[in-house]
Every structure is written in structure tokens, then in C-alpha cells.
Design a protein that fits this description.
Layout (H helix, E strand, L loop, with lengths): L2 E3 L7 E5 L5 H11 L9 H10 L5 E5 L2 E11 L1 H4 L5 H5 L13 E9 L8 H15 L4 E7 L12 H9 L8 H6 L3 E7 L11 E8 L16 E11 L5 H16 L5 E3 L17 H8 L3 H15 L2 E3 L3 E5 L2 E9 L5 E5 L5 H7 L10 E3 L2 E5 L8 H9 L4 E5 L5 H18 L2 E5 L1 E3 L15 E3 L11 E4 L6 E8 H10 L24
Parallel strand pairs: 5-6, 9-10, 9-19, 10-11, 16-17, 17-18
Antiparallel strand pairs: 1-2, 2-3, 3-4, 4-5, 6-8, 7-8, 9-22, 11-13, 12-13, 13-14, 15-16, 18-20, 20-21
């Protein structure tokens, strides 16, 4: 690792790995910084560390002289857990705790020559250490942090209260304040971590930085994708002569979208409404119940398409009728042959009045080979609690099949969907139908402009719209969604909606209701 940085005309800084020849300069700094807690390690201990894990020992030199150092090990954190001491980690200078197959980078020390503390060299070392953690695909960084400023408050404050005040910037601690500013959080308080640290009264903070890019050991095939390609169908309502006629139209779009190697294709709410025209019933409520008789067959055929075209399918939504109750349900047909479903939870006054439709009672998160997704049908996206609950279950993409008849109805769906993307730091894809069905009462006109929305920050499109269809025109949208950008947003975004929620003031809970 090597990085040349020109701080100003007086300095020539170089970030690099430590070597054994650097020991004398490292010892000089440690004796200055740790004069009250045993000073520097021996040359043998320093040599042991370099032999164990040379890539984890880094420094910054200025014109050839070492002025700042960061030292690390890799450990299997389950072996040590949250109750350990510094001595257990360094193991009397043998560093036997180092495990190349471990899952955590353990920061054993960072120190800067007192004459160089105005150049923010510690921040550069922390950034380099994070880079090591990411490149080695480790879960995160753990470190025991001193709280030397506590000596001035030990007779007034508990360690917990002191740490809380530092976190809230009511007090400043020369070590903890710096670590918190570098995205570390306090996992717990340790007693006796460094018994000789009288300034900290032998207390320490167990600090953690989480590597959001960490991936479980990657599979040669079938691993989770970081860039997901989705296809959404803005569906033209047209008369059909039979179920077979409709299935041909459906398969056309599945075939088309899958040919672009898309991972998922989405159809609109009630995309099968033309089947209502086949009913001989004049009553809208009877016509939609007759249409519900096709639902199982459509689902089974779409599961077969998902398998044969190697694409996950969100089958918009269709009516389901059982126990004399009418529901609106969206099916997720996975390309592994399994399926799942999400009921529409909130029915509109129109659906209730014309059809006697009821809302479902359960909200589900779906595991797929592209990650965790959620489905909210039309009106449901206008209730922010649902998307927030899905976000709490680690949803990355929210799909919203809708049916709207007018532009103002469409805008309710669109604007709420955009808000959900920002609030929950996720992508939201919406799609509806266009055209008209003259012989189908209550489904006669359609308005749609399908779209894919992102959060609003620098890494995303400037208007937070990834893709957008032409209004009221049958077409497909293909969009690539980078899931890693969501990780960046969560940890380093201009604002961090999920992290900054005041959970100390409010919470959101699900009140379970028995199926009637």
C-alpha cells in the first residue's frame, strides 16, 4: 500500500506498510505517547507483529521519518467475544490471537507523533484501515478505546454518562471523540481492559465499525448480486377472447424482458382485468368473482414461465375469492419454482363499494436471489408505516403494482412511492396499465406512467428517477439498480434517514389480527 500526499510545502507524506527497520522511530513515538503506561513494545514484539500480519501494519512517514502508525490483527471474534482484555488480544507480544481465517480486523493501536497532531494523520490511518478491512472482506473493525479525558470527571460522572456526553458533544475526549467522528460506535463499556491506564480509570470503550460491503464467502455460482436488473411492464388493457389469448400476451412480455437478462419482471395491479369481459354477469361484484376463478391457473402458468425463462415474476395482482371473501393478491413467482404472495392490506372506498373487497392482514418480506424485496399493492404505498416496517426487515427494493384511472389518482401513488424511496433508503418500482376496457364496469379507463425511483443523494440520478415510461403508452422499462449505493447512503449519505430516527421517542409495531 503506497499513497503520496503533499500536505503543504514543508511536508512530504507517504502512507505505506511498516518494516522492521522502522522500529527505532516507532519506539520513539510510543515512548512519547505512552509514557504513563509502559511505553513502547520491544523489538522482538514488533518483529512478531510484522511476521504475523505484515499487511495490517501501516504508517505515515514524512520525508522518510515515521510520524504516525496503525497496528492491526485479524481475529475470530467469536473466540474472544465482548468480554476480553487488551492483554488477551496481544498475548504478551506473541500475537497468537492473529487468525488469517478470522472474520474481524482488530485495531490494537493508532498513535501519532505529538508534533504532527494538527495534520489529521489519524484520520488517514483509520481510512486506510477501513480499506484493508473491505479488501480482505472482513465483517468490521473492533478496537478497545481509551477514555483519558475521564480522569477529570471520574468523581462526578459514571463512565456511561461520560461516554454519552462525549457522544452528544457536550464533552470532548481526545480519543473517543476522534473515534466517534470516524464512524465507530460504542458497543459496550469494558472494565479492566487496560489496568494500567489510570487516566481512563481502567475503563475502555469497545468500539465497532461495520463493513457494509462484507459478503459471506462468495459462491462460485448463485451468489447474491450487487447490481440487479429489473423490467417493468406498462400493460395495455385490451379485449381478449380467452385465457389462452391473455397468457400469450403475458408470455410475450416475460420473454421480451428476460431476453435482456433481467432478474425480475413486474406486471400491474389487475393486469388480468380483460377477463372480466368474458363474464356474462352485469354486476361488477359478480364479474370480478368470476374473474377470480382464473387466478390459480394464471399463477401456475406464470410459475412455469419463471422457471422456463429464468426470471422472477411479480404477477401484478389478481382477485382471490375463498370462504365467501374477496381479496386482492400479488404473487411472487420465483425462478426456482417456488411462489409466495402479498395481500393488499388497504382497499379503496371504490373497491369496497363496487366489489365488496376486503383487506388482508399480513405484511411479508420476500427472500429472493436478488436480495430482500417488498410488494405493496397500489393504495398500500400511501401508508408510510408499511414500507418502514419492510425497511426494518432489510428491504432493498419495493415493488408497487397499481391501477389508477385518472392522473390525480396516479400522482398519489407516484409521489408516495418517491417519498418511500427517500424515507427508507431503497429503490421503488411502480407500474400500471394503460388504455381502456369499454365493457368492464369500474375498470373502464386507465392512466399510467411507470417509473423506478431512487433515494435522493449524489450517487443517484439528480432527480431521483432511475427510469420513466412514456405516459399512457404500452412499453417496458429495463433498469439496473446498484445495491451497494444503498449501503454507502446508509453509512455516509448527506442525510441518513434510517440511522437518524429518534427511536428513543417513538416506535412502530404490528398489531396482529386473527384471520376471520
Amino acid at each position: 500500500m503506497s499513497e503520496k500526499i503533499e500536505a503543504n510545502s514543508e511536508h512530504r507524506l507517504l502512507l505505506r506498510q511498516l518494516e522492521l527497520k522502522d522500529y527505532k522511530e516507532v519506539k520513539e513515538i510510543m515512548d512519547l505517547v505512552y509514557s504513563n503506561i509502559d511505553g513502547a513494545w520491544t523489538r522482538k514484539e514488533f518483529s512478531n507483529l510484522l511476521k504475523k500480519f505484515p499487511d495490517g501494519q501501516i504508517c505515515i512517514e514524512d520525508k522518510g521519518k515515521v510520524v504516525a502508525v496503525a497496528l492491526s490483527l485479524i481475529v475470530d471474534y467469536a473466540v474472544y467475544g465482548d468480554k476480553h482484555t487488551y492483554e488477551q488480544i496481544v498475548d504478551r507480544g506473541t500475537f497468537k490471537s492473529h487468525d488469517p481465517e478470522g472474520d474481524t480486523l482488530y485495531g490494537i493501536d493508532v498513535f501519532v507523533h505529538p508534533e504532527y497532531r494538527n495534520l489529521r494523520l489519524g484520520r488517514r490511518l483509520y481510512d486506510a484501515r477501513k480499506e484493508i478491512c473491505e479488501n480482505l472482506n472482513l465483517r468490521g473493525i473492533i478496537a478497545g478505546g481509551r477514555i483519558p479525558g475521564y480522569k477529570d470527571y471520574a468523581d462526578k460522572l459514571t463512565p456511561a454518562k461520560y461516554i454519552e456526553m462525549v457522544r452528544n458533544k457536550e464533552l470532548a475526549d481526545p480519543v473517543l471523540s476522534f473515534q466517534l467522528s470516524n464512524d465507530f460506535h460504542v458497543r459496550k463499556i469494558l472494565k479492566g481492559y487496560l489496568p494500567d491506564d489510570t487516566d481512563s480509570r481502567a475503563y475502555a470503550t469497545l468500539l465497532e465499525w461495520v463493513n457494509v460491503y462484507y459478503e459471506e464467502k462468495e459462491k462460485l455460482i448463485g451468489g447474491k448480486k450487487t447490481v440487479v436488473r429489473i423490467g417493468i411492464v406498462q400493460w395495455q388493457m385490451r379485449a381478449v377472447k380467452s385465457l389462452e389469448d391473455m397468457m400469450q400476451q403475458i408470455e410475450f412480455f416475460v420473454d421480451t424482458v428476460s431476453s435482456y437478462k433481467s432478474d425480475i419482471v413486474v406486471f400491474p395491479e389487475f393486469f388480468n382485468a380483460p377477463l372480466m369481459a368474458l363474464s356474462k354477469e352485469d354486476s361488477p361484484s359478480e364479474a370480478i368473482r368470476n374473474m377470480a376463478e382464473y387466478t390459480d391457473e394464471i399463477r401456475e402458468q406464470m410459475i412455469h414461465m419463471a422457471l422456463s425463462y429464468n426470471i422472477n415474476i411479480i404477477a401484478g395482482s389478481m382477485p382471490e375469492y375463498y370462504d365467501n371473501k374477496l381479496y386482492n393478491v400479488s404473487y411472487l413467482c420465483r425462478r426456482d419454482g417456488t411462489y409466495d404472495k402479498q395481500y393488499k392490506l388497504h382497499v379503496t372506498p371504490d373497491e369496497s363499494h363496487y366489489w365488496g373487497m376486503r383487506g388482508g392482514h399480513k405484511l411479508k418480506i420476500f427472500d429472493t436471489d436478488i436480495g430482500k424485496i417488498g410488494i405493496l399493492i397500489c393504495y398500500d404505498v400511501e401508508f408510510p408505516e408499511l414500507a418502514r416496517m419492510l425497511s426494518d426487515m432489510d428491504m432493498k427494493i419495493l415493488f408497487v403494482p397499481y391501477w389508477t384511472d385518472t392522473k390525480n389518482a396516479y400522482l398519489r401513488v407516484r409521489l408516495c412511492a418517491q417519498a418511500r424511496a427517500i424515507e427508507n433508503e431503497c429503490y421503488v418500482a411502480i407500474t400500471g396499465s394503460v388504455g381502456n376496457l369499454p365493457k368492464v364496469e369500474n375498470m373502464d379507463i386507465q392512466y399510467s406512467q411507470s417509473a423506478v425511483f431512487s433515494p435522493s443523494d449524489f450517487a443517484f440520478p439528480h432527480d431521483a428517477v432511475v427510469a420513466e415510461a412514456t405516459p399512457n403508452t404500452e412499453m417496458t422499462l429495463i433498469a439496473d439498480l446498484d445495491l451497494d449505493l444503498l449501503k454507502d447512503l446508509n453509512t455516509a449519505g448527506s442525510v441518513r434517514n434510517l440511522k437518524d430516527r429518534r427511536k428513543d421517542l417513538y416506535n412502530l409495531s404490528w398489531v396482529l389480527r386473527q384471520e376471520e
